[in-house]
Design brief:
Order of helices and strands: HHH
Distance between the termini: 84 Å
Radius of gyration: 31 Å
Helix content: 40-55%
Structural class: mainly alpha
Number of helices: 3
Largest sheet: none
Number of strands: 0
């Protein structure tokens, strides 16, 4: 017997019940003409849709993005400013430290 041949389950081994089949839904003409479905067909996808959806609350997401942008800009400013401060400190203390 090779590794590719199916084997019978061992005696006493638990077996899983077969998964129930998902009910098939009737086609939805409005969903067929949706921009996502049209784009999926243009791409040649088998599914009649592209997974995902519209953001239910875009204002909350945009507010979060603005907050993170401000944080990113502040961190970049701190990093650049600390370089100038450290550079100035080394330039001022450098000649005095060598004596």
């Amino acid at each position: 017997m090779t590794d590719t041949e199916p084997t019978a389950p061992e005696a006493g081994a638990p077996t899983l019940p077969p998964e129930p089949e998902a009910p098939t839904l009737p086609p939805d003409p409005a969903a067929y003409d949706s921009p996502r479905a049209v784009r999926a067909r243009e791409k040649g996808l088998e599914a009649p849709y592209i997974a995902g959806g519209h953001d239910p609350d875009p204002e909350q997401g945009l507010a979060e993005e603005r907050r993170y942008l401000k944080l990113l800009l502040a961190m970049a400013a701190v990093i650049v400013a600390s370089g100038f401060v450290l550079g100035a400190a080394v330039a001022l203390l450098g000649p005095a430290a060598g004596k």
